[in-house]
Amino acid sequence: MLPLILAAPLFAPAVAAASDARQLVTRGDGIIRSPVNALPASAPKVLGRQNGIDVWNQNSGTRYAVDIEVGTPPQQITLILDTGSPDTWLNPSCKFASASGNQKDCQSFAQFDATQSSSINVTNSGDILVYGSGNATIQYVYETLTIGSATIKDQIIGIAKESHLIPLGILGLSPPPGGRNEYPYVLDTMVDQGVIKSRAFSLDLRGVDNKNGALIFGGIDTGKYIGDLAKLPMLSPRESPRGGDRYYVTMTGVGITAPNGEVLQSEAIGVPVFLDSGGTLSQLPTLIVQALVGFFPDAEYDPKSGFYYLPCDIAEENGTIDFFFGDKAIRVPLNDFIWQIQGFCILGVVAEDEEPILGDTFLRAAYVVFDQDNRNLHIAQAANCDTNLVAIGAGPDAVPSKKGKCTALPTATATATAGSGNLDVSATRAPTNTFTGSGPTDVVVGPGPGATKGSGSGGGDPQATGEAGKNAAGPGRAVGWGPAVALGLVNLLGWML
Ligand SMILES: *[C@@H]1O[C@H](CO)[C@@H](O)[C@H](O)[C@H]1NC(C)=O
Ligand SMILES: *[C@@H]1O[C@H](CO)[C@@H](O)[C@H](O)[C@H]1NC(C)=O
Ligand SMILES: *[C@@H]1O[C@H](CO)[C@@H](O)[C@H](O)[C@H]1NC(C)=O
Fold it and tell me: Which residue in 11, 81, 289, 413 has its CB near the most CB atoms, within 10 A?
């Protein structure tokens, strides 16, 4: 059920949908593959239909976007790829994109013209979607979408009547954070219409300098990772920090492999983290961030944004920031972990004690299969040595446990001794240097996680327009936009195993 919107419909009633001339395009093996290209800002590379959509790294890794086709005849629309929210919507209001640079950025993308589509079916329902950064007031419509080589019909999507701080619409691929579908999301419809066999996709964002990643619905590519895919159970909403149902798993350690091969690693910890492709930076508990920052003596802390600025030559060095999930280590090369924007170099993590996130600065180094049906994430170190697509079927073992064909790590690293405990993540370390300059301008990070709609409501009626933000995921602390973070000792100790 959709919440009703009382305002007048945004559009003139659509032309009655003539029978859709486009056939449902489905590959026999139920795999929809979409190349991921790391591209500089603007200039999306348009690929042929056979290759599916193009997922591109925009604005130095500020966001990852996909091009999909909407309506009949199809209009190409660029959307942020977001594993942190379930709703898909279009047409942000550029006049509220905040800074002037963002207005131009926002205006550089095509908007969907609903009057030109014969397959649109406008509803009287709407909603207010609240994100970590920004929000959108949308009206729901039924439309035909083409994603990669697959066309789905009658997908409910939002068309924004007004939005703030979000320069692009969003393709949402998360489960409903409130634990209950309000309507069939894109992934649900792909399964319902037989395009893929189960609600699962794999995501390989790739490094900032690499143009060969992919988003694959219903399949994995064993030529894109090293070793086994570690199966990590998704935490239940009850186990997750704010009770939202998200792609949460338990991170059991952090570490650093220094350029000289020295290995630092925390003791065993148990921190719930959720994997959010819509998050530009990662957000981890204060004490963990301070422990990692301790390794960069030149880091300058900006209390206004929460960012740690670094000398840019650090991004050229070998070495990795390491994340552990049981036996599995994901090592993020410094070059991918440091966010390089407008000549500034910013450490890829900020402090957040309430809702820890591994965002793009982590995902660039990971190959992740998101299996909503079985509530597991499967994770491995990303690499690129071959192309070998394997379909994800249905049932409990739908995600094939295939070893990755790749062997070499992206940069030379030593082998860590598990749980060596020589990186102390329990000590408070005040930042030693303060950043006093002004940072990058006109950059909106995020959008960050979608609000946990309905989670406090005991699964009652769908929330009417205007109440959607009630259980918003946090105080809307966009990466770096919030106040300086409080000491997280209590939280962190709570998560220590
Ligand atoms: C639009 O949706 C309504 C309600 O589901 C349905 O009755 C109607 O047939 C649809 N119209 C078109 C053109 O798809
Ligand atoms: C959306 O964001 C804008 C800008 O931050 C804010 O003024 C507005 O109140 C928000 N709207 C909702 C419904 O949260
Ligand atoms: C990084 O490691 C590679 C391979 O060991 C080496 O060739 C390169 O010189 C190193 N780069 C730096 C900046 O140390």
Answer: 289
Q: Are residues 263 and 324 in the same domain?
A: yes
> How far apart are the CA of 257 and the centre of ligand 3, in A?
14
Tell me whether residue 204 is in a domain: no
- Ligand 3 neighbour 408 (Cβ under 6 A): no
Tell me the CATH number at 328.
Answer: 2.40.70.10
Question: Could you tell me if 46 and 125 lie in one domain?
Answer: yes
Same domain, 157 and 30: yes
Ligand nearest to the CA of 469: 2
Distance 137 CA to ligand 2 centre (A): 9
Distance 303 CA to ligand 3 centre (A): 34
Q: Look at residue 417 and tell me if it is in a domain.
A: no
Residue to mutate (ligand 2; options 127, 131, 135; most atoms within 8 A of CB): 135
Question: How many domains in the chain?
Answer: 2
pLDDT tens for residues 420-472? 678 888 888 888 899 888 888 777 676 777 776 533 322 222 222 332 332 22
Q: How many CB atoms lie within 10 A of CB 408?
A: 10
Residue 83: C-alpha distances to residues 87, 309, 340, 369 (Å) = 10, 27, 23, 11
Is the domain of 112 the same as that of 170?
Answer: yes
Contact 293, 431 (CB under 8 A): yes
pLDDT at 490: 26
Ligand 2 atom closest to residue 469's alpha carbon, by position in its atom list: 14
**pLDDT score, position 185:** 97
pTM of the model: 0.82
- pLDDT computed for residue 312 by the predictor: 92
Residue range(s) defining the domain that contains residue 288: 224-405
Any idea how long the chain is? 497
Instruction: Indicate if 172 and 230 belong to the same structural domain.
Output: no
Q: Fill in the DSSP letter of residue 119.
A: S
Name the stretches of the chain with pLDDT < 70: 1-29, 33-61, 98-101, 207-213, 409-420, 444, 446, 452-497
Asked if residue 44 is part of any domain, the answer here is yes
The residues annotated as belonging to the active site are 82, 276
Residue nearest atom 4 in ligand 3 by C-alpha distance: 412
193 Cα–ligand 1 center, Å? 17
Q: Report if residue 273 sits inside a domain.
A: yes
Element (H, E) at 191: helix 186-192
| 225: nearest Cα among 199, 203, 252 | 203
